[in-house]
Amino acid sequence: MSKKITVVGSINADVVATTGKYPIRGETKFGKTVNTFPGGKGANQATACHRLGKETFLVGVVGDDMFGSQILSDIQKSGLDTKYIKMTKEASTGVAMIMIDETAENTMLVIKGANDTMKPEDLRQVEQAMKESEILLLQMEVPEDVVIQAMIKAKSMNKLTVLDPAPADGITFRALNYCDVIIPNKQETKFLTGVDVHNTESARRAARHLDDLGVKNIILKMGDKGCFVYKEGREEVIPAIKVDPVDTVGAGDSFSAAVACALADGVDLFQAAEFAVIVSGLAVTQIGAQSGLPTLDDVLEYAKEHDIHHYLLNYQ
What's the whole-model pTM score? Predict the structure, then answer.
């Protein structure tokens, strides 16, 4: 039976423009391409979980507009169930305006829109989904009280809560009281701990600080350096896989989703991080936060080609 994951989070339309170099403030430059993709951290992570073979329940809100209708259609085509996605007239669908330069790095401006209208009472209808799930996966692009209430519900059901505390602008320290696993990137780690992570020693200091705050399972995402995993004094640096990046939008979302999928399978935090490094590495080789996500078959093929074993052998 497929393991199940509930994702509570944002749903956006991503307007993605590519350019050679970023314009400086006040400057006009000609770009290369522009495309619109389904996005939002919640939707990205739910899609990633689904592609990695997990039955996934996505809980979120879109506007009653062109973007909202298109996103619902895209989600249905992907195979994800839309029954827990609410359409509202209170606000327009969330939009992320994203610019990608020649190094594949991205800069974005997010308009939360309908995501900001989500309320704790919207969670009532998904209690059964949470009961059936092994994992609750969350981020910070929806209101704080929704995040906290979802985590409290999950903890009351003895479910594992996995928090991707992104973006830094949305971080609430209250959430640390209810999360079992935290997966911040470098910017979010600095916001939470004050530590600028640039090597193993600084990652260790940041992880120990989070441990002191009460979170016992910690994975620090370090971009092209891989990740730093810390649990009960045990630590490990897991290097990134070698790829030619095209688009880093959604890489962190795919990483967190992969960790949740692996933990749902019952493996330890370190094996989950190894799996996530492969998934996020493959994700950056294609454009689009969701369209570029690898399938489980893609991951298994990579593992076979590179003689990577661990828990992936369970699928072969």
Answer: 0.91
**pLDDT reported for residue 316:** 45
Q: Is residue 5 part of a domain?
A: no
Tell me whether residue 209 is in a domain: yes
Residue 111 lies in a domain: no
Angle between helices 269-283 and 296-305 (to 10 degrees): 100
Burial (CB < 10 A; 0-12, 13-18, 19+), residue 311, is middle
The SS3 of residue 56 is strand
CA distances from 81 to 20, 29, 75, 77, 300 (A): 38, 41, 7, 9, 25
Using CA atoms, how far apart are residues 297 and 58, in angstroms rounded to an integer? 22
Structural contact between residues 175 and 145, judged by C-beta atoms closer than 8 angstroms: no
Tokens 């190094």, residue? 103
Residue 311 is classified by DSSP as: G
Overall domain count for the chain:
1
* pLDDT value for 180: 97
CA angle 181, 76, 92 (to 5 degrees): 80
**pLDDT at 85 exceeding the cut of 70:** yes
54 phi and psi angles, rounded to 5 deg: -105, 140
Residues belonging to the active site? 253
Give me the domain span that covers residue 216: 39-61+119-315
Q: In whole angstroms, give the CA distance from residue 272 to residue 265.
A: 9
Which one-letter DSSP state was computed for residue 286?
A: S
| pLDDT reported for residue 168 | 82
244 confidence band (pLDDT: 50, 70, 90): confident
Tokens of 250: 């959604």
d(CA 147, CA 55): 21
In a domain, 136, yes or no: yes
* Average pLDDT in the chain: 91
Q: What is the CATH number of the domain that holds 249?
A: 3.40.1190.20
Q: How far is CA 169 from the centre of its chain?
A: 16
